[in-house]
């Protein structure tokens, strides 16, 4: 139903299930959105699809919703990770929000040699991913991982996952990804300062890495993240 309030919850959803609300959820539904008993809300938890629920109890510090019927099946995104070096706060928020909307399964901030930011607020970024899923009609919320060094992530790389490396030094005709095999993938986007020579040498030597161009212009990191996910989704993901 268009325009309906959608809320991500952690509890199981199903016929006859009741969902107890946290104080923050109750404040949002009853204080901000002014819902009263009997109002309908759409709930999802990333596992059980979307459920229509009605407000059974509305209080200032809590409340209860009762599941009525399943309104959409669970839809999982393709197995795509977005790996990126955090930039300024608002632009990092944008990257997380767009990655969740565009269908990334996992979001991994990494420290690179030229990373602009040494710290992230993982909980805040995770909340952005939840909000993006609530607003775009998704039934899945990608996990936002804690910040870790790119070198460690590459050292522990999982077998069978391929890495599309957005390499600014290739700026030129956009890559088509032709010949790329489907399966688990990750996309790597660098920081404002790009990748260091040591990082490029390492990435070039790894068998699971496919360097790509994102066109003839050098994009800001947040634009590059959106462009790279769109390119991958159109060729190998669930936009086909
Ligand atoms: N400082 C770098 C330079 O001047 O070459 C630019 C870095 S760019 C702002 C940030 C990241 O976006 C890059 O590390 C790369 O991952 C990605 N990127 C931007 N434009 C790109 C392009 N045309 N092709 C491939 N990757 C690109």
Secondary-structure arrangement, i.e. CATH architecture of the largest domain:
3-Layer(aba) Sandwich
Oligomerization state: single chain
> Can you say what the CATH homologous superfamily of the largest domain is?
SPOUT methyltransferase, trefoil knot domain
Helix content: 25-40%
Average pLDDT over all residues: 95
N-to-C CA distance: 25 Å
Radius of gyration: 20 Å
**Helix and strand element order:** EEHEEEEHEHEEHEEHEH
Approximately what portion of the residues adopt beta-strand conformation? 25-35%
Helix tally equals 6
Write out key terms for the chains shown.
single chain; 240 residues; alpha/beta; Ribosomal Protein L25, Chain P; Alpha/beta knot; 2 domains; 7-stranded parallel beta sheet; 5-stranded mixed beta sheet; 29% helix; elongated; binds S-adenosylmethionine
Walkthrough of the structure:
The chain has 240 residues and is an alpha/beta fold. The chain has two domains: 6-72, Hypothetical PUA domain-like, domain 1 (Ribosomal Protein L25, Chain P, Beta Barrel), CATH 2.40.240; 80-236, Alpha/beta knot (3-Layer(aba) Sandwich), CATH 3.40.1280.10. The chain has six helices and twelve strands. Strands 6, 7, 8, 9, 10, 11 and 12 form a seven-stranded parallel beta sheet that branches. Strands 1-3-4-5-2 form a five-stranded mixed beta sheet. Helix 2 (89-102) crosses helix 3. The longest helix is centred in the last third of the chain and has 16 residues, at 221-236. The two termini are 25 Å apart. The mean pLDDT is 95. S-adenosylmethionine (SAM) binds at residues 166-168, 170-171, 189-190, 192-195, 213-215, 217-221, 224.
